[in-house]
Amino acid sequence: MVTTKRYTLPPLPYAYNALEPYISAEIMQLHHQKHHQGYVNGANAALEKLEKFRKGEAQIDIRAVLRDLSFHLNGHILHSIFWPNMAPPGKGGGKPGGEIADLINKFFGSFEKFKEEFSQAAKNVEGVGWAILVYEPLEEQLLILQIEKHNLMHAADAQVLLALDVWEHAYYLQYKNDRGSYVDNWWNVVNWDDVERRLQKALNGQIALKL
Fold first, then answer.
1. 7-45 tens-digit pLDDT
2. Residue 209 has pLDDT above 60, yes or no
3. In terms of C-beta distances under 8 Å and separation of at least 24 residues, what long-range contacts does 149-153 make, across chains too?
4. Is the pTM for the entire model greater than 0.90?
5. Where do the domains of the chain lie?
6. 79 among the known binding-site residues?
7. Predicted pLDDT of residue 156
8. What is the pLDDT of residues 139-182, one digit of tens each?
């Protein structure tokens, strides 16, 4: 029997209103229930087409289906990192501690320079996409990268530690076209404990995707 596992929408680790006033409950609910669920549904639809193809039940445009799978699956994975990368005000924000703080200082010079570079990366993604902080295992270093849409992904095998969604659905209802203010306010809800946890898994050769 040819079967593939299906993806499911993970629950948020906090209530929809938990990130207010920086990200509204309305945005969080729509973002999670509609947009993230849409990526889950899209990935599963592509898998279903591939499964039927493998069973000889259907002919498909393999390039188009694999592109759909890439787009939707990457959207699902990035959002599954994005949600726990944030925490309610009082628990999130501020400066990191632990080894992630040491590596930020080592590779960026200071937290302030890192924050400036990451913010500029997020504010200047062309069109829609993401800013991400990754651990790149080839040279064992931290890098800040941009993702346009979902298909144009980051360096192969790099572990995403911190992800910021700058698609318009992530902020427009509250910030309109002022992406910069959204990015600036987002720093108040960054969950550095989660970033540290992901770093430790990356350093140990593990994958840290689960909520």
1. 999 999 999 999 999 999 999 999 999 999 999 999 999
2. no
3. 149/71, 150/39, 150/70, 150/71, 150/72, 150/74, 150/75, 150/78, 151/67, 151/70, 151/71, 151/74, 153/70, 153/74
4. yes
5. 25-82, 98-203
6. yes
7. 76
8. 999 999 999 988 766 677 889 999 999 999 999 999 999 999 99
31 is in an annotated binding site: yes
**Is 76 marked as binding a ligand?**
no
Fold of 98-203: minor pseudopilin epsh fold (3.55.40)
Give the integer Cα–Cα distance in Å for 211 and 60.
34
Least confident of 128-142, 145-159, 180-194: 145-159
Pick the CATH number of 25-82 from 3.40.190.10, 1.10.287.990, 1.10.10.10, 2.60.40.10: 1.10.287.990
**For tokens 């409950």, what's the residue?**
25
Query: What is the per-residue burial (b if ≥16 Cβ within 10 Å, else e) of 118-133?
Result: bbebbbebeeebbbbb
**Spacing of C-alpha 74 from chain mean position:** 9
165 is in an annotated binding site: yes
pLDDT of residue 208: 59
